[in-house]
């Protein structure tokens, strides 16, 4: 599959089968995050422990409900809503809090991971909600359970798994946001 086909095929998947990502595939996918364009130190944390993923999901949901953010509260109010969509693998990308380029670095790594997973026929979702538990009272405890380096802030999450094909996958909106200057 060409890189253009991979980019075109990529979608944000919000429903996953209860099936682990193949170990060899997972290593290939995660390794692509290490070779992204970077500006400073960052950490990739791969979570496949179902209980820990569920804990992160539950704390994220509770944080959304009590966020004071209208959008987050409306999503959390949807009956049965789960912020991590049942994904069997959660990748958290973090960087030192003092790294002003941490969000850029982790986003570049996340995109590599997402495209590699797509090329290997896995569904993904670039997600902000997995960062919410780390701003909650449970954040330090969860960071310790994950072995996050001291002083690192979780900036983005990537959900990975086999897409539940029975769920409808939203079509991409056509954007008109390109300006050519010659």
Explain this structure to me?
The longest helix is centred in the middle third of the chain and has 18 residues, at 102-119. The mean pLDDT is 94. α1 packs across α5 (102-119). With 182 residues, the chain is an alpha+beta fold. A 4-stranded antiparallel sheet has the order 1-2-4-3. The protein is 37% helix and 15% strand. The protein starts with a helix and ends in a 21-residue tail after the last strand.
Salient structural properties:
182 residues; alpha+beta; 4-stranded antiparallel sheet; 37% helix; globular
What is shown here, in short?
The protein is 37% helix and 15% strand.
| Percent range for β-strand residues | 15-25%
Mean pLDDT: 94
Q: Rough shape?
A: globular
Strand arrangement, major sheet:
1-2-4-3
Structural class: alpha+beta
Order of helices and strands: HHEHHEHEHE
SS element count, helices: 6
Quaternary structure: single chain
Distance between the termini: 32 Å
Radius of gyration: 16 Å
Low-confidence stretches: none
User: Helix coverage percent of residues?
Assistant: 25-40%
């Amino acid at each position: 599959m060409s890189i253009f086909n991979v980019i075109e095929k990529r979608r944000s998947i919000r429903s996953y089968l209860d099936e682990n990502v193949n170990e060899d595939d997972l290593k290939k996918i995660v390794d692509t995050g290490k070779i992204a364009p970077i500006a400073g130190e960052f950490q990739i944390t791969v979570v496949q422990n179902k209980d820990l993923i569920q804990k992160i999901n539950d704390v994220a949901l509770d944080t959304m409900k009590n966020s004071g953010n209208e959008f987050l509260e409306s999503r959390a109010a949807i009956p049965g809503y789960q912020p991590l969509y049942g994904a069997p693998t959660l990748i958290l990308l973090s960087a030192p809090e003092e790294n002003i380029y941490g969000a850029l670095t982790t986003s570049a790594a996340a995109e590599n991971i997402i495209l590699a997973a797509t090329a290997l026929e896995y569904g993904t979702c670039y997600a902000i909600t997995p960062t919410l538990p780390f701003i909650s009272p449970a954040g330090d405890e969860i960071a310790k359970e994950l072995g996050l380096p001291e002083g690192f802030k979780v900036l983005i999450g990537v959900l990975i798994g086999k897409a539940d094909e029975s769920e409808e996958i939203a079509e991409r909106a056509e954007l008109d946001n390109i300006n050519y200057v010659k």
